[in-house]
Write a structure and sequence with these properties.
It is built from 5 helices and no strands. The protein has 151 residues and is mainly α. Helix 3 packs antiparallel against helix 4.
Length: 151
Amino acid sequence: MTTLKQPERAAAKRPLLIALYAGLALSVIGAVAPYLDIATADTIGAHVRDAYPDWPASDVQKDRDAIALALALLGGLGAVTWIVAIATAGKRWARWFVTAAFAVGTVLALSIGFMGGEAYSTIAPPAYGALVTLPCLAGLAAAVLVWRRRD
C-alpha cells in the first residue's frame, strides 16, 4: 500500500516543482540579462543618459553599473531562494517558506523594478522592471500549488 502512495505524491509534487524551476530559470535570466545588455545594446546606459543628458560618461557608467548590480543581486538572491524552495518542497514547512518567499520577493521586485527617482520615471528601464517581476508569477503559482497539496 505504501508503494502506491509514493507515485501519487511524486505526481502531485510535479506541478509545484515545475513552478519552482521556472522561477529559478527566470531569476537567473534576470540576474544575467543586465550584464548581457551592458555588453551589447547598453539600454541601461541609454536609460541613464536619457534621464541625465548633462552627465559626463563616467557618471553615466557608474549609475548604469549600480542599476545593473541591483538587478543582478535581486536575481541572484531570488535564485538562491528558489534553490532552497526546491530542496524543501517535500517538507511540511515548505508552505510557509514558499509563501513568505513569494511575499518578500514580490515586494523587492516591485520596489527595484518600478521605483522612481529624481529624473527617472523608473530607475530601472521598464523592460527590466517587467523582467524582475516575472519570477513573481512563478512564485504566485508555487504558493498556490504548495497550499493545494495534500500532505
